[in-house]
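G., the chain you wanted modeled:
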Amino acid sequence: MVHGSTRSHSQSQSGSPAGKTEIDGTIMSSQSTHRHTALVYDPALTAHCPWLPHQKDEPEVPLRVETVMSRLETMRLTAHCDRLQGRNATMEELLSVHTREHIERLEKLNDLTEDCTKEMEAQYDSVYLSPFTHTSSLMAAGCVCEAANSVLAGKHRNAVAVVRPPGHHAYSDRWSGFCFLNNVAVGVRQAQKQGMTRILILDWDIHHGNGTQAIFEDDPGVLFISLHRYDHGKFYPSSEAADPEMVGKGDGEGYSVNIAWNESGLKDTDYRYAFQQVVMPIAKEFDPEIVFVSAGFDGAEQDPLGMCDLKPRIYNYMTTELQKLADGKVVIVLEGGYNCDSTAACMSACVEALVGKQPHSFARCKRGPSELTKQSVELTKWCHREFWPCLPTDGPMDDSTSETVITSSPEPRGDSSPLTSPQPSPRPADQDSGEQRDVRVPEEEATAKEEATPDVSIPAVSGSVVTTAGTAQTSQTVDNAAAAVATAGHALAIHTQPHSNPSEDSSLASTAELLSQLQLDDGPTMFFAVTPKTDCPHVAAVRDDFPGAVNMQQACEKCDETYENWICLHCHNISCGRAINEHMKRHNQRNPDHHICVSFADLSAWCYACDSYIECQKILQPKLEALHRVKFGVKSF
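Predicted structure as tokens:
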């Protein structure tokens, strides 16, 4: 199923909606004099707090919201907002998300005693309870409803709710992870009640919004996108629901998008890369009518739980980008964030974007995304490629505010000529229809890709590139390529058909002489020679044992394909190459220590960690010889 390709109206790409003018760096309405950003907060949100000795080290404390409000006041950002009165959520609003039993259980906390507190806390996952948990939770959900209703009614273009306890871990029937009521989910249900049929929830809290995803996982009217640490299932909430493979259920399949990080120390450029490669392309294709942000700031620098290094500017950037959607209707809701100063600085950066202040600069940002970041993003794209044809291939990062450039790397090819350009396997919907889809890619991104991509149909690979154009430099380039071929012991892959072929009985003195005879009808011939890496440090990690009799006709363990398969030398998994369904690449992404695989087609060895073909070193020789014996009946190469 392909999502988002049948919208009847186009989405504006402008950051400032129609009818707005910019004065002194602030976008103001030309049709009314009121401020276009609503701010909702209430002192009752601080009532829930640690009250027993065993709770003294809890990080989810009232100071979190108090510091945010103090910072907004100090920066005079509150002067650019309309302050709305907070209120409790109604029973009707709560029942749109939570079970009645869940709500009644929360109400009973008003009579909580010290004796039963520990016993009740032990029944749930990472919560602490107080006699005022119900008071603050009810206010938090109500404040989000108030913010959402103001935007839905057209009174304000956007809104921010500075609330606690957070909500995105709360399920419809149970508390979890400091959360009791799912504040954003309650706000979304109000939007649906008022006729919104396409709602985006972006959750950038460093922890996966497992509660929110569970509530909407079968709802095609709600697109849930989460950027979170996963650490292969070991980072809280330690649930498989945070895996990129979890794409939704039933009618909601493809509407849960998980970008799962497997490392700490994430930087701004990691998030920008994910935003440009996944978040914005899918969001624009979905074309939401309103955007809700589960804005956790525990990914910010110095946060004791997130252990990452995000600066206020990335939150400013993400907020600015989101305002290009839904005519700017964005509701930001505070979730996590446990370094109070960092949380306050990052929320202030978001509010700066909402009120139209000048975007923060990325001019000094030189670092590109990490390799693990690129792997995580590619895995998410792989899981959603059948749903969202708009997802781009790797390309340069939009550097309108940054000099960082992101480039793609070669992948192992699974055919007998490892350098030929594979075509991606067709999506099921593509097979059923010859209809050409309108894949919306930002114009600046398309231009950047056009300029950065060579005018050939195969990606650049490690080694030498030879152009035979009849120029003075041809012989030198050909000699270099010939030397590379001799060193590697690999054949050249010829990209185009030559003008004339050498006769079969001709005797050529060298590879260079062969190359010099090849011509093109209408341009230079491109040759690609690969020099395998000779000092791969990862071969020592491959298993010593090897199957005595490998069935080289065995199907891919994931898709039953028997063509162009590879074998992992760490676990002997057999999976298909990129030209089929990319299951070996995905096997490496899910098992990052499994670096080295060998092609059944041509017995070439590839190392994912080195991102290169590798030489047949002594440690690999027995395994390659075993495969060679199976394939050709002889041992020697």
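Residues 5-33, 399-512, 518-528 have pLDDT under 50 and may be disordered.

Shout if anything looks off.
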